[in-house]
Amino acid sequence: MGEHGRRRRHRTVDRVAWVLEAAARAPGGVTVAELARTLQAPASSVQDLVNGLVATGFLLEQHRRFRLGPAPHVLNLIAGRVVPRIGQAELDELSRVAGTPVLLTVRVGLDAVHLARGGEDEIPRLVPLADEHVARPLLRTAAGRLLLALTDEVERRGLLDELARHDPEAVAEFRSALPAIRASRISRSEGLADPEVSALAIPVTEGSLVTGALVLTHRRRGRSERLFLDRAAARLLAHIQERRT
């Protein structure tokens, strides 16, 4: 892909994205001064960004504190529910069928983010990653690798060009695994993000559109985890297919 088509980061876009996330994570909202300190940017510049985001409905202001506005939700509605919608009861049922914890995950730029989890997680330190929606590098998670593999080819090429600037070895390894992931529509992580965790991801779809991934996790103890997760995924896929017919 040519220089013009590279998915390079943009400072202003990064600042806007960070402001929106900070507002979303703060129950009582954030002030311009707090944002400016964290961004290490002039308060006047941050105020300009915030003013524009309030004017377009991405932020709401109350008592000089800013919270996430309705615009992101409206855009999802306009786009036709591109974010997977699986309720808590359904996630818990999927976890019961699989016999393993289940994470609902989406791609956000160059990261994978867990939206929700079902079942009881046997690895407690994974719980806040899901409950606090912590961003994790795409190539270091089973879900990220699956979602990247199933992304449109042109977009995937641009994303890999950007990722290669920071982790060329991981990109090279992913490129070699890409045909198998696309053929099977299954991705694995054997300790990539956490040396004690094995994970397997399958796609969540709406029609022909891949909207997210379901991740099954298991504590790594030996070779048996791969077979365990394979069987869990087979049960889950059969259950999903049965519900659709």
From TrEMBL:
Spell out the SUPFAM superfamilies in the cross-references: GAF domain-like (SSF55781), Winged helix' DNA-binding domain (SSF46785)
Q: Which residues form the IclR-ED domain?
A: 64-245
Task: Determine the domain of life of the protein's source.
Answer: Bacteria
Keyword check for Protein transport: no
Domain named HTH iclR-type is located at 10-70
**Keywords linked to the UniProt accession:** DNA-binding, Transcription, Transcription regulation
The GO biological-process annotations, alphabetized, read as: negative regulation of DNA-templated transcription
Name a GO molecular-function annotation: DNA-binding transcription factor activity
Official protein name in the record: MarR family transcriptional regulator
Print the organism lineage.
Answer: Bacteria, Bacillati, Actinomycetota, Actinomycetes, Kitasatosporales
